[in-house]
Write a structure and sequence with these properties.
By secondary structure, the protein is an all-alpha fold. It has one domain. About 75% of the residues lie in helices and about 0% in strands. The protein is built from four helices and no strands. Helix 1 crosses helix 2 and helix 2 packs antiparallel against helix 4. It is elongated, with a radius of gyration of 19 Å.
Amino acid sequence: MPLTNWGEAAAFLLARVLTIGFMFFAYPVFLSAIYLQLVRQGGSNLLMVVSQGVAALMWLVTLVLFLLFRAGFGAVPANVAPDRRDAVTTSGGEIGAFVISAAIVMAAVTGVNIWVLPGIYASLRTSGHMQAIVGVSLSISVVASVVFFLVFVTLRAGMASPASSRASP
């Protein structure tokens, strides 16, 4: 049994593109002022807590959009709902796989943001290539999304199988 299908991958891609696109709009319009105020009031620790909360919220929005788009595309995999390909459905195992995958990716991206990106951004600024910073940020988002989907599909396959909606004989 295949772990996923192209329709499900497209549903995730669309959900993630919408949430990432929203964040690239929301950050300069709303969040940058809030983050600046948080740094002034509570330092970088408070900023880290709030930014992780925003990231977790965006993963939750991604989950809801993903489930809706997956059903709309008729792409619910058989290992999730064997007889309901177009249902907005999920299971505890699938939600668990999503949460674990999101936590793994958030931890990895946080590590990259703390230890790798400051040097890259400083190098781009000093060499006069500030316009490349957006490209680097988007690249990190794309890589994180691909890694997330692969981890999610793999973890979901290891979680408990869903119960069939058919009655047993």
